[in-house]
Amino acid sequence: MATKAEQRERTRAELVRIATGRFAEHGYAGVALEDLVADAGLTRGAVYHHFGSKLGLFRAVVEREQARVAEVVESAADAEADVVEGFLAGCRAFLEASLAPGARRILLVDGPAVLGWDAWREGDADTSVRLLDEGIAELAAAGVIEDRSLATVGTMVSGALNEVAIADADADDPRARIDETVDVLRRMLRGLAPSRAA
Question: Does 196 score more than 70 pLDDT?
Fold first, then answer.
């Protein structure tokens, strides 16, 4: 028999699971709390107990999605022995994960708009941005790119990837766009290589 703590965790996980599907399909503004809890066979009180509000539930959904995408990115990067290929594989994995309409809507559209830029960025900093910064530091340590302005490089790559992920939603062939983006990133890294003395 499940303990109360286990039951609470199951209820919380079920609410997040159902809410993820609802927010992905209808967006934050299009989800009524009454419909969401009806799907879970619960009451509004369950949401208030576990999350405090619809906003709190949405925050939990965003955090879960950020962690899920970060796991995919880290796994893809770790699968490559070469530091450059690992970095590019991680970037590709982020873009591929963002092809899912739900991930794009929750993470890149509603996330910043609903939570506010600072709160959304804080969660992103702990997941995808952290991995991106680590990858850039590894590139610098390996001598692939110059060891200067790394925070700026990270911010620029992060912003570019997010914008490409949003733009790919309307692309005729989003997979080809991902290939193109990875190729551009590869060329950008060459441009950041340390200058060699003649």
Answer: no
